[in-house]
């Protein structure tokens, strides 16, 4: 067994992976919730959410240039604070959050699948879980190429929704709709509250850094891919939100669990079954991305030996961390079958916010005490703002969770 992953990933596949891991099945529901808060200014809420996510994304980008290792956030803790226990804790938190998130997405995707295909949910979870784990083991380029196809399907579906929203007869916008579904505190409060909600649609850029040891020239390619993915996703989300609130009243979107179907129906009488199929593709993409990410984190945790040393091995022919992929894939299937993953998924978002706080703090420390000059650098106020923004979101998230 080899202790080195194969460097086979370029800028295009890495960016596609980032776009795919951020754009998930959640956008098919979240647009309605955001419209309920911001009304016809939902597009602005998504734009602001992208700006809130940007500092943390830039912090991950510089850290990926400083510490191009598969462990991602865990490796950054080790480099900045020299605390192995903190690196292990953060790494395990990422693996746990990724596993829970993937299980929730897998169950949700199977829910869409059983609505269009006659198959038992348990059988579908087993078959899809095993299939996606096998693809993750097959090879990183193969995994990312398959994910890129799924991402393309997702984006095409959203483009169709955008087109439908722009071609449909526009709804009349009342003052209340602009302010955010009757929010008496005004437009600003409605948009800011919606932006905090929309922030979670951008979570995923942190997964990109775990492919550092499989990326060609990661010090330069990795930061560019992170920024490019975030910009593309922000543009897509803004257009979807604008088109949706143009075609359907915000309060109607907010009351639906399938708001984008309403957008399509506002334009065409054709059944929107294709949106369910695209939601399945989005779910498969999300599950695959989390298996790939978590297996690389385990690989990175094994770098120092100890209890996790067994995971720091890559198959010499496939170039992938087989044992980590099998463990994560099996855990995802079991969680999807046995655990109340919908409730636990909210906890995983809280864990990720805590990791964002620590990652920004790690970059701040490296900038203050380090002498390295990485290929990609950001001003020192970026990790400061990223840490404060993540901390504020974490406090709000803990309030909702508790």
Task: Tell me what you see in this structure.
With 402 residues, this protein is mostly helical. The chain has a single domain (11-401), classed as Amino acid/polyamine transporter I, CATH 1.20.1740. It contains 17 helices and no strands. The chain has helices at 11-22, 27-38, 42-66, 73-81, 84-116, 121-138, 140-167, 175-179, 187-198, 205-208, 218-247, 250-254, 259-267, 273-301, 322-338, 341-369, 381-401. Helix 3 packs across helix 9 and helix 5 (84-116) runs antiparallel to helix 16 (341-369). The longest helix is centred in the first third of the chain and has 33 residues, at 84-116. The model is unreliable at 179-184 (pLDDT under 50).
How are the secondary structure elements laid out?
Blueprint (H helix, E strand, L loop, with lengths): L10 H12 L4 H12 L3 H25 L6 H9 L2 H33 L4 H18 L1 H28 L7 H5 L7 H12 L6 H4 L9 H30 L2 H5 L4 H9 L5 H29 L20 H17 L2 H29 L11 H21 L1
Helix pairs in contact: 1-7, 1-11, 1-14, 2-3, 2-9, 3-9, 3-11, 3-16, 3-17, 4-5, 4-16, 5-6, 5-14, 5-15, 5-16, 6-7, 6-14, 6-15, 7-11, 7-13, 7-14, 11-13, 14-15, 16-17
CATH fold call: Amino acid/polyamine transporter I
CATH architecture: Up-down Bundle
Number of domains: 1
Rg over CA atoms: 21 Å
Secondary-structure-derived class: mainly alpha
- Principal-axis shape: globular
CATH class category name: Mainly Alpha
Number of strands: 0
Q: Beta-strand percentage? A: under 5%
**Distance from first to last alpha carbon:** 45 Å
How would you name the CATH homologous superfamily? Amino acid/polyamine transporter I
Which bin fits the share of residues in helices? over 70%
Number of helix segments? Answer: 17
| Poorly predicted runs | 179-184
Query: What is the arithmetic mean of pLDDT?
Result: 86
Q: Give the SSE string.
A: HHHHHHHHHHHHHHHHH
């Amino acid at each position: 067994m080899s202790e080195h992953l194969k460097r086979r990933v370029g800028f295009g596949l890495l960016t596609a992976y980032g776009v795919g891991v951020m754009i998930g099945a959640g956008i098919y529901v979240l647009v309605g919730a955001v419209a309920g808060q911001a009304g016809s200014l939902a597009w602005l809420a998504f734009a602001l959410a992208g700006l809130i996510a940007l500092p943390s994304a830039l912090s991950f980008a510089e850290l990926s240039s400083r510490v191009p290792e598969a462990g991602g956030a865990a490796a950054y803790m080790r480099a900045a604070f020299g605390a192995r226990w903190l690196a292990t804790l953060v790494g395990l938190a990422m693996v746990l959050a990724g596993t829970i998130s993937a299980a929730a997405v897998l169950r949700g995707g199977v829910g869409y699948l059983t609505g269009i295909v006659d198959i038992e949910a348990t059988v579908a979870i087993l078959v899809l879980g095993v299939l996606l784990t096998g693809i993750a083991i097959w090879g990183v380029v193969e995994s990312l190429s398959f994910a890129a196809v799924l991402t393309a399907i997702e984006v095409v579906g959203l483009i169709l929704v955008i087109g439908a929203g722009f071609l449909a007869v526009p709804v009349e916008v009342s003052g209340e709709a602009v302010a955010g579904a009757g929010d008496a505190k005004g437009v600003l409060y409605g948009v800011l509250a919606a932006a905090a909600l929309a922030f979670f649609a951008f979570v995923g850029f942190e997964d990109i850094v775990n492919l550092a040891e499989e990326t060609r020239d990661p010090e330069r390619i990795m930061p560019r891919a992170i920024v490019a993915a975030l910009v593309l996703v922000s543009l897509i989300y803004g257009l979807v939100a604008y088109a949706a609130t143009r075609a359907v009243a915000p309060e109607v979107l907010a009351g639906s669990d399938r708001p984008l179907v309403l957008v399509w129906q506002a334009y065409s009488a054709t059944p929107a079954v294709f949106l369910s199929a695209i939601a399945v593709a989005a779910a498969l993409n999300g599950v695959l991305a989390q298996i790939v990410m978590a297996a690389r984190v385990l690989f990175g945790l094994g770098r120092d030996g100890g209890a996790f040393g067994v995971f720091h091995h890559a198959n010499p022919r496939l170039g992938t961390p087989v044992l980590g992929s099998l463990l994560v894939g099996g855990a995802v299937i079991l969680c999807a079958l046995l655990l109340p993953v919908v409730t636990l998924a909210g906890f995983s978002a809280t864990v990720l916010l805590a990791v964002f706080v620590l990652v920004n703090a790690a970059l701040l420390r490296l900038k203050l005490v380090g002498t390295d000059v990485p290929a990609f650098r950001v001003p020192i106020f970026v990790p400061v703002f990223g840490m404060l923004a993540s901390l504020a979101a974490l406090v709000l998230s803990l309030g909702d969770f508790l």
